[in-house]
Amino acid sequence: MDEIPGALALSELDGMKVLDVAGATVGELVDVVARTAADRPVVTAFFIDAGEGQLAASWAQVAEIDVDGERLLLRVPAPAVEAASLRSDELSLVDALLDNQVLDMRRRTFVRVQDVLLAPEEDHLVVAGVDASSAALARRFGLGFLSRRLPKKTGDFVPWADVNLIALRLSRLNFVEAFAELAELHPADIAEIISQVGTRERAAVLAALNADLAADTLQQMEEDLRSAALQEMPVPRAAMVLEKIESDEAADMLGDLPDELAQELLALLPDEREQDLRLLASHPEHTAGSLMTTDFVMLPQGAKAGRAIDWIRRERPEQHMMTYLYIVDREERLVGVVSLRDLVLASPDDEMAAIMEDDVVEVTADVDEDEVGRIMTKYDLLALPVVDEERRLLGIVTLDDALEAVVPDDWKQRLPRIYR
Fold first, then answer.
1. Which of 126, 123, 127, 128 is nearest to 60 (CA)?
2. Which of 170, 210, 336, 385 has the fewest beta carbons under 10 Å from its own?
3. CA distance 264 to 282
4. What is the sign of the dihedral through the CA atoms of 214, 215, 216 and 219?
C-alpha cells in the first residue's frame, strides 16, 4: 500500500468489530459499498453482520475507523442503523471485486483482485485501485509478516482509472455495458481480452459485435481459439463473419474446422467467394498457393486511369491490399503492375498499358514459402503475384503473410498487419 499515503486495504476492514456511539457491539463488518457514478467510487456504506441479518451504516454515521484496534466506531446508536440494501448505482467491493478478475486497461490484460485500496479524499473515502499482488493475498490471510517480504511487480497495483469491470458484467450477463466498452477498442485488444474469458462470455461478445468487427477480431486471435469461436457461432452467423475475412485467412480458418462444418459454411457463401476459398484450400501447405489471397485489384490494360479510380472508389471501398494494381490481358494473363501512387498521379485519360511496369516479379503457386520470402526480401516487395503456368493471375502473397510463414511461432502474434 506504499503507492497511496494513508490508504486502507479492504482486507484490513473485513471482520472489524462495529461499535455504536455508546460502545455497544452492533456486529461485524462484512462488506464496504461504494457509489460507482463518480470517477472514483465513493464509499457510501459499511455492511454489518448483526446476527439476524445485515445492517448498513452510512459513511455519515461512521465516527472513526480504528485499524490498530480493529474497530469501526459509529457516531449513532445501534437502532439508527438501517437494514442493508444495495442500490443500482452501488458496488459491493467484497462481492464484486475480491477474488474476481478485472481488466487492466493500460496493460490490456486481466488481473485477479487480491485486495482493494481505499484512500481518504476530502471528507470521503474513495476506491483508489486494486491490488493484484501476492503480498495482498498474504495480507488477507493474516500473514502480514510474509506480505512485507514478498517482491512487488509492475502491474500489481492497478489505479481505478485503469480498472474495467467487463469480466464482472459478462459473468452477470450485463452485456449491454460490456459490449459498448469493447466496441471502442482495437480488434487486437478485443481478441486479447476475450481470449482470457470463458467460452460463454467469448461467444456472447462475438455474437454482439457487428460482422466486420467480429471478423477483424477473429483474425487477431490464436488459431485454436478462433477455430473454437467459429464453431461456437450459429452456422449462418459464422458464414456471415467468414465472408468478411480476407480470403487467405478465411481459407486457413476453414482448414482448421471439422470438414462437415467447413462444407456447410462454404455452401452458405456467395458462389465467387466459395470458389476462391476452395481454390486456396486446394494448395499444399508451405507453398505460395497456400499463402496467397484473392483479395486484390485486377484491371485490363486498356482501362483509363480516371475510370479505374472511379471503379475502385465505387466497387472496392473496403479493399485492404491496394499497394499495387495488377494489369491483365483478355485471357487474364499478368502483363504488368501499377502502383497506387502512379495511378493517382496519372492523367485521367492515360491507359494502364502506358503507366504500368511490365517487368513483373512473380511466382507460381507451387513455389516454396521460404523462396517466396527470399524473393520478396530481395526485391523489396510488399506483395508478390502468384500465377499459373500460362501466367494467369491467381492471387498475391502479402508481405505480412510471407513473414508469418517463416518466422518462429512465438513471434507471429507480434507481427503488425500493416500491409493489409
1. 123
2. 210
3. 17
4. positive
Could you give the strand order of the β-sheet that contains 109-112, starting from the edge strand earlier in sequence? 109-112, 101-104, 163-164
Say which amino acid occupies 390: E
Flag whether pLDDT at 151 surpasses 50: no
How many CB atoms are closer than 10 A to CB 319?
11
| Cell numbers placing 378 | 530481395
- Phi, psi of 161, deg, nearest 5: -60, -25
Q: Which residues touch 179 (CB under 8 Å, ≥6 apart)?
A: 205, 208, 209
| d(C-alpha 84, C-alpha 77), whole Å | 16
Q: How many residues are recorded in the chain?
A: 420
Rounded Cα–Cα distance for residues 280 and 290 (Å): 6
CB atoms within 10 A of CB 37: 9
Q: Are strands 17-19 and 101-104 parallel, antiparallel or unpaired?
A: unpaired
Shared domain for 306 and 324, answered yes or no, is yes
pLDDT for 120 beyond 80: yes
Q: Which of 95, 114, 132 lies at the terminal end of a domain, its last residue?
A: 95
Q: Is 260 exposed, middle or buried (0-12, 13-18, 19+ CB in 10 A)?
A: exposed
Q: What are the C-alpha distances in Å from 49 to residues 9, 18, 77, 83, 139?
A: 19, 9, 16, 10, 22
* Domain identity same for 141 and 224: yes
Q: With contact defined as beta carbons under 8 Å apart, do 324 and 338 qualify?
A: yes
Indicate the pLDDT class of residue 149, thresholds 50, 70 and 90.
very low
CA–CA distance, 401 with 412 (Å, rounded to integer): 10
Task: State if pTM tops 0.85.
Answer: no
Which amino acid, 27? G
- pLDDT tens digit string along 374-407? 999 999 999 999 999 999 999 999 988 888 776 6
Q: Cell for 335?
A: 502483363
Indicate if the pLDDT at residue 266 is higher than 90.
yes
Of residues 211, 252, 256, 248, the one with CA closest to residue 233: 211
Range of the domain at 42: 8-95
Kindly give the pairing relationship between strand 324-328 and strand 298-300.
parallel
Using only the alpha carbons of the chain, give its radius of gyration: 30
**Of the residues 247, 274, 290, the one at which a domain ends:** 247
The partner residues of 66 in beta bridges, in order of sequence, read 71
